[in-house]
Amino acid sequence: MISPRFSDLMRERMTLSFEIFPPKTEAGMKKLPGILDELVSFGPDYISCTYGAGGANIGMNQEALQLIRERTVACTHYTCVGVTREAVRQHLSGYLDRGITHILALRGDYPMGWNHTGGDFAHASDLVRFIREEFGDSFEIAVAAAPGGHVECTSEDDDIAYLRMKQDLGADYLITQLCYDLEQFKVWRDKVDKAGITLPIDVGIMPVTTKHSVMTQCFSRNACAVPRELALVLTHHWFDKDPDGNEIPQVKAAFREEGLSYSAWLLNQYLGLGINGIHLYAMNRAEDVRQVLQRSGFR
């Protein structure tokens, strides 16, 4: 059996967790232990590590997870794009052999030009079903939730119906994608409650540090609504290049300063809603996490 169970912990108190990615270079891997040491100093309940579609970086993923396990509890992401049932069985058995018993089960993004997974699993719900059928309660399973609606879903009601399906198939808790719009989150949570979804909600927050990261995450990946508070941060520092196209360092620094303060404000707003946990997308930048946690007073 799994110990500890984050889903049980989130029902008892507010949890804190971080998400990192496995560096692509050896130089990046050498820096990772120091980054993890700083993150662990904030007392997270767990740290998750991303996973490339089709297992493209499974080696780096496992190396990063081992470094996490030496410091705190680790949770691996796992995507089912381009994988067979046998490959998933082998991969997950390997995680169990390494003591990894927490998993975020995802479909994953399609590679460019694809319109299907190219494997034996079409949806994250298929992966959840398979894990429970093959491994029983060996894993605690988190699944993704999109308070703003998944970019491929035809309606929010359909999206929530899929969430209910994941719960019924054996998911243990939810980790949300980005949602900067608090009003949208409140509406979504009400619908989740009415749908009979009782899973704890770990709210994902990505610190606002650069205009590029906000634009990329909100517009090219998640279709995430930008509320006025965040729009003002973008507006105040929109013109960040000189006439020759060179970046203006002072504007970049000013954006980061206001963005971190906004991120701390957003975290406090979520805390006021009585959520079950905070999942900060650390992006391997421990100093950004430190600033958000200290400015918010959460740590």
Write out key terms for the chains shown:
TIM Barrel; 299 residues; globular; 14% strand; 47% helix
Give the SSE map.
Elements: H1 6-12, E1 15-20, H2 26-40, E2 46-49, H3 58-69, E3 74-79, H4 85-97, E4 102-106, H5 124-135, E5 140-145, H6 156-169, E6 173-176, H7 182-194, E7 201-205, H8 211-221, H9 228-236, H10 249-272, E8 277-281, H11 286-296
Parallel strand pairs: 1-2, 1-8, 2-3, 3-4, 4-5, 5-6, 6-7, 7-8
Describe it for me?
The protein has helices at 6-12, 26-40, 58-69, 85-97, 124-135, 156-169, 182-194, 211-221, 228-236, 249-272, 286-296, and strands spanning 15-20, 46-49, 74-79, 102-106, 140-145, 173-176, 201-205, 277-281. The protein is of the alpha/beta class. It has a single domain (6-207, 261-296), classed as TIM Barrel. α2 (26-40) links the parallel β1 and β2. An 8-stranded parallel β-barrel has the order 1-2-3-4-5-6-7-8, surrounded by 5 helices. It has 11 helices and 8 strands. α5 (124-135) packs parallel to α6 (156-169) and α10 crosses α11.
Describe, in short, the structure shown.
The protein is α/β, with parallel strands linked by helices and 299 residues long. The protein is built from 11 helices and 8 strands. The relative contact order is 0.14.
CATH class value: Alpha Beta
The strand line-up of the biggest sheet is: 1-2-3-4-5-6-7-8
Proportion of helical residues: 40-55%
| CATH structural architecture | Alpha-Beta Barrel
Mean pLDDT: 91
Secondary structure tally: strands = 8
Number of helices: 11
Give the ordered list of helices and strands.
HEHEHEHEHEHEHEHHHEH
Examine the coordinates and then state which fold CATH places here, giving the name of the CATH topology: TIM Barrel
User: What is Rg?
Assistant: 19 Å
Number of domains: 1
Strand count, sense and barrel status of the largest sheet are: 8 strands, parallel, barrel
Strand content: 5-15%
Q: What would the principal axes of the Cα set say about the shape?
A: globular
Distance between the termini: 31 Å
Low-confidence region ranges: none
| Class based on secondary structure composition and strand pairing | alpha/beta
